[in-house]
Amino acid sequence: MKKIYTSVFILFVLSVFSNLIYSQTLSKETTQFIDNLLNSSYPEKNPGISILISENDVPVYKKAFGMSDMESGSKSDPENLYAIGSMTKQFTAVGILCLVNEGKINLKDDIRKYIPDYNTHGKTITIENCLTHSSGIPSFTELKGFDKIYDKKLSKDEIIKYFQDEELMFDPGTDFSYSNSAFFLLGIVIENVSGMTYEDFIQKNIFDKAGMKHSYFGNWEKKIPLFTTGYESSDNNSYAKASYFDWSWPFSAGNIISSTSDLLEWNNALVNEKLIPVSLLKKAWSPYMLAGGVNSNYGYGWNVTQLNNYTIIKHGGAINGFLSDGIYIPEKKIYIAALSNNSGKSPDEVTNKILFKILNTNDEDPVTINLDKSAFDEYTGAFEVNRGGGRLLKNYSAEKQYRFISNGGDSLIMSRTGGGKSGFFPYAKDKFFLKKSGKRFEFIRNSEGKITAMEVYDYPVTLGPADICQKVNIELPTERKEITLTAESMKKFEGEYELQPGFILKFFVENGNLYVQPTGQKTLQMHPESENKFFLKEVDAQAEFVQDADGKVNSMIFTQGQKFECKRIK
């Protein structure tokens, strides 16, 4: 009995000591700020988030919010496991560097040395090009038709055949476009060089060495303890289980399942040289310079940017039903890991605010300066978009897209192909921002002082290089003209149309108007411009209903930046 009391006392002391450690470096005010932020962002009845913050390798904040499984009513737990999506790329990159450290791979090697039959279209694509998204290989997740096959189990050879014959978007090393395909190939390189499966190699050389005892590889047949259920937004601000996908696709680009505690073990193992020497880690955590000295803001599997006097090493992940984010600030030895089973709310909305708070950096919008209205016309015009979300536009759309700057009389207005209109505010000479967005814009002038382009980037972290949008000589869009149709004539358009698996556009007539409700979003009125063409006023989007020879409407073309052929399913 005495021993039992002693054990209880020891556990109590350890618990108190643990709580003291967790509160050593975060002030009560900062802790309360984070609590309030996460409580409001992830309400207890919604899918949730687990978040861990460490300093000097030790957790100083570790909590969970929301639900891990809505059907059973299970609350989120700090030790829950989540699919981490593209954060997997860090592990693949370090797996490659383990082989580099062993002298089995050189970063400048042509990938055909390890995958001889791969179609490089006559170009030399190096291991480093694949690590830095400078290979030019289109990402298979954005190729046409992917949404029809991502739930099918394919062999690795079949997946490679799916993307390898697509033309390169640029000569390797000359540009940047985020590529899941390139990281898929790196997994094949690891297998071919090591003679092990990718999963066995990562388990032995990373998970085991780092002490990651609760990390796994995606597998729907195997029950994984504490693995959360993934959710995506559904109708009427509700949630539905995430649409199914087959784990053969993510592979070395996104197939790891982990916890915030294990991700801390991972980061600690890296900075303490348990996995690779610091010289190789330094390369991974240094931005790769593209041809011409352009900063890619990306190393090997991590974003790498500067925020004031701090280096921000960061990467997120997204896969059906799950979103993740990880940040490391080496100058302060602070690590933030956030894992969520809610694909409708990006964790970086909270991790960025936490980052600013911890660094005591202002995250408010810049202060607007006065701009003489006589200068408005100088900034107006159309600027061609090249990239979005780290990918070149041509990876996912054959349609050109533009940012339009127009003179609104009292202010400048920005709109984008497929988007809505926003106030465009100056905060310095030639520098502008959109409120509450993190978007920054800087106009570029030629030697004669004439505006020729606009640089676009995200604050605090841009995925890939800034987008240099050249000014083009096209007319600014005009207001669409609305006509009047009878409710009876629009009834034939009512129904549900599948834009992508799991994403439905529901059209219905009410009070003499046609409305659309996208999955998980609010209802909007469609405005007719012809008998079968409609447009939205909130954003640049149009719907064209297609009638068969017998007059039935079985499909619809939805255009918002790019065209989607939507089959009527109900």
Summarize the structure.
Helices cover 24% and strands 29% of the residues. It has 570 residues and is an alpha+beta fold. The radius of gyration is 25 Å and the shape is globular.
List keywords for this structure.
Beta-lactamase; eight-stranded antiparallel barrel; single chain; alpha+beta; 570 residues; 3 domains; Lipocalin
Q: Can you put this structure into words, describing what you see?
A:
The protein has 570 residues and is an alpha+beta fold. Helices cover 24% and strands 29% of the residues. The protein has 3 domains: 83-358, DD-peptidase/beta-lactamase superfamily (Beta-lactamase, 3-Layer(aba) Sandwich), CATH 3.40.710.10; 373-472, Beta Barrel (Lipocalin); 487-568, Lipocalin. The strands form 7 sheets. Strands 14-17-18-19-20-21-22-23 form an 8-stranded antiparallel barrel. The chain has an 8-stranded antiparallel barrel with strand order 24-25-26-27-28-29-30-31. The chain has a 6-stranded antiparallel β-sheet with strand order 2-1-13-12-11-10, with helices on both faces. A hairpin with a 2-residue loop joins strand 10 (303-307) and strand 11 (310-319). Helix 3 packs parallel to helix 7 (180-194) and helix 3 packs across helix 8. The longest helix has 21 residues, at 2-22. The protein is globular, with a radius of gyration of 25 Å.
Secondary structure blueprint with pairings:
Layout: H1 2-22, H2 28-41, E1 49-55, E2 58-65, E3 67-69, E4 74-75, E5 82-83, H3 88-101, H4 127-131, H5 146-149, H6 156-163, H7 180-194, H8 198-210, E6 216-217, E7 231-233, E8 239-241, H9 251-254, E9 256-258, H10 260-271, H11 278-284, E10 303-307, E11 310-319, E12 322-329, E13 334-340, H12 348-358, H13 376-379, E14 381-384, E15 387-388, E16 391-392, E17 402-407, E18 412-416, E19 421-428, E20 431-433, E21 439-445, E22 451-458, E23 467-472, H14 487-490, E24 495-500, E25 503-510, E26 513-518, E27 524-528, E28 533-535, E29 542-547, E30 553-560, E31 562-568
Antiparallel strand pairs: 1-2, 1-13, 3-4, 5-9, 6-9, 7-8, 10-11, 11-12, 12-13, 14-17, 14-23, 15-16, 17-18, 18-19, 19-20, 20-21, 21-22, 22-23, 24-25, 24-31, 25-26, 26-27, 27-28, 28-29, 29-30, 30-31
Helix pairs in contact: 2-12, 3-7, 3-8, 8-10
